[in-house]
Known about the structure:
- The chain is mainly alpha-helical.
- The protein has helices spanning 6-30, 34-61, 93-117, 122-150, and strands at residues 2-5, 70-73.
Amino acid sequence: MKKLTVNEVLEYAIKIEKESRDFYENSRNVLKDDALKSLVTVLMKQEEEHLKSLKALLDDSQKKSFSKVLINVDSSMLTQIVHTGEITEDTSPIEVLNIALEREINTKNNYEMFLELVKIDETLIDAFEMLRNKEQEHISIIKRKMNEIKG
């Protein structure tokens, strides 16, 4: 276990979303399949929206007294986001989708953990519930696309 402040939890969530946005952006730049390129572009834009929401929450949190409250976090969860490495033109669509799926599952799991930690503020609860649900949507979209490709 590791003790983090609410602000540190939000900063970690921002890091997750930024990495995911960058992953989708890099994937979009090298993928040749137009349908897959369109999908990762949509996901990239959604991750950008998540990022903006979290940054606004962090700004708001810094003004509140609970921002210094220490909460226990399972630190093993904080290392589960997938290292994506470099996406190249040789990376297959299935490889991109497998990495994306693993990223989204781990992100959703982190948000579920964060939900248990931020019970001190309704705004944070709502935000992490929304983010968890969006990650679940991403998981479903990616799985459908994988099934299409595998035929």
